[in-house]
Amino acid sequence: MRGVERLRGRGRFAVHRSESRELTLCAVCGAEIRVAGDRAYAFGADGALCHACAVARGGVYDEQRDRWLQDADTSDLEREER
Q1: What is the pTM of this model?
Q2: C-alpha count within 13 angstroms, C-beta hemisphere, residue 80
């Protein structure tokens, strides 16, 4: 994941190589997100938002169905990703 690799490159923390494939960072707040297990909101090629940032951007998550019912607004982030 691009975000974790970028963070690892700055030496702020070290993760095992297998863990780096399972982790990414929230595009807004930088929180570490587990790809499997966390209620992350994926967007674009490889972007993600933590649950709190996705909800703050209008996303609505259904706990019972384990899926997003309403998309979070990521239009500004998708422009930056290009």
Answers
A1: 0.69
A2: 9
